[in-house]
Amino acid sequence: MHSYRPAPVLEALGVCSEDEQLYRALLARPESTTLGLAEVTGWPAARVTRHLRSLLSLGLASRTPGRPARYTPAVPEAAVELLALRRQAAIVEARLGASVLTAEFRAATESGPFTVIRGAEAIAQRYQQAQQAAQSEVVVLDAVLPARARSGVVYRMVYDMALLVDPASLDAARAAGTSCRMLRDVPLKLVVVDRRTGLLQTGADVLVELGPSSLLDGLLRLFELLWQQATPLAFEPSDGPLSAEDQQLLALAAAGLTDQAIARRLGVAQRTVERRMQRILKALDATTRFQAGLRAGQRGLLTP
């Protein structure tokens, strides 16, 4: 019998009551298996599996390597902060969308604080122009600049962990010679130059340029929050314990791919992936693959 159920506290951050119930069960019993959680909650295993996927996507839990799969809860303070940041990012995107619609409706994008730029070639050109015009500072969220960093200009970049899977993007970040940090699920693609010009990509072929405004101020505050949450990524070469194959495997795992998906990508057996992952975790003194990815990145061990 499970007659008592504590009142939900995470609904305001987009976590449903059942997800929160399972998260609380995991907090009380870290390293639980699916079957163990099914016994605790009284749910069918399929229902537990469904909500575990939700917890993983929300960043409220992580899966440890090996079989049977075990799940570890995220530290509540860090997890709630990340959920709050995502909510703030969603609000910023909604406000931006309303502003863009207003600008298009008034047909005044050239004279107002917003300019809509369309087309991949025009967007790449505008990124390059903005970077060349920078005088003191460029901040970036999950956007790879097309040109090398300018001398005398301070660069700060926050990239999504998925960047580790793409050698070309990682090479571009390294070539820029910038101060880079990594974060899972970066919510926006943004470049702000000298705190006066913002370039926000809202689609594959749509870029919104922002001038000085309360919206740009809000985006800068969001960047600072994400910068504080992100983990530094070093690019210094290293003779670390990871082979090129290990680096590729760890990059795929840190980006969220399952052992089965990694095995298909690399053309090896799933047991081979699990065995190599255990060796990597031991070499990096890490308990989860996400932690291993961050530590490898900090040490410059993820060179393609």
UniProtKB/TrEMBL annotation:
Which InterPro entries is this protein grouped with? Sig_transdc_resp-reg_C-effctor, TrmB-like, Tscrpt_reg_LuxR_C, Tscrpt_reg_TrmB_N, WH-like_DNA-bd_sf, WH_DNA-bd_sf
> What residue stretches are annotated with the HTH luxR-type domain?
238-300
**Lineage: superkingdom:** Bacteria
Q: Looking at the Swiss-Prot or TrEMBL record, what is one Pfam family this protein matches? A: TrmB
Q: Which PANTHER family match?
A: HTH-TYPE TRANSCRIPTIONAL REGULATOR TRMBL2
Q: What is this protein called?
A: HTH luxR-type domain-containing protein
- Which species does the entry assign this protein to? Kribbella lupini
Q: What is the lineage of its organism?
A: Bacteria, Bacillati, Actinomycetota, Actinomycetes, Propionibacteriales
